[in-house]
Amino acid sequence: MATCPECECEFDDPIVICPHCNVPLVNREEAEAGAGDGEAVDENLPAEGLVVIETTTDDTRVGQIRELLEESGIPCFLSDELFPTDPPPDETKVFIPREMVDDAKRLMRDYFIVNKTAT
Ligand SMILES: [Zn+2]
Predict the structure, then answer these.
(1) Contact assessment for residue 98 and residue 77, using Cβ atoms and an 8 Å cutoff
(2) Residues 6+ apart with CB under 8 A from 87
(3) Integer distance in angstroms from the first to the last C-alpha of the chain?
(4) What are the pLDDT digits (tens) for 41-88?
(5) How many angstroms is it from 44 CA to the middle of ligand 1?
(6) What's the predicted TM-score (pTM) here?
(7) In the chain, what are the domains?
(8) 45: CA distance to ligand 1 center in Å?
(9) How close is the Cα of 31 to the center of ligand 1, in Å?
(10) Residue 98: alpha-carbon gap to chain centroid
(11) Which of 103, 112, 114, 119 has the fewest beta carbons under 10 Å from its own?
(12) For residues 100 and 103, what is the distance between their CA atoms, to the nearest angstrom?
């Protein structure tokens, strides 16, 4: 199924040019593929190879997570650094490389459990 970017009409193969607008059709299903996985980790990201480990409005928590991850050698990136917007969004997403998700989750779980029992 292909869609005309101009008139939004949908056409089946083998039509590749919109007969109304005379523009090339785009494959919308391909563009939207990958959305809607029910995992805790949001994989629907523009930055390839990165996943969201945390979404929070708490700047202090963001700082703690970042410190924790970087101390452990896991590079992390914040959404307002990767995708600057004006004004910045209320919530900050913490991105890490996909292959380090398991380590990061374990670190965060240990870290926040320790903090909870200590207070
Ligand atoms: Zn069209």
Answers:
(1) no
(2) none
(3) 57
(4) 444 545 578 899 999 999 999 999 999 999 999 999 998 888 888 887
(5) 28
(6) 0.54
(7) 1-33 (no CATH), 50-118 (3.30.70)
(8) 29
(9) 18
(10) 11
(11) 119
(12) 5
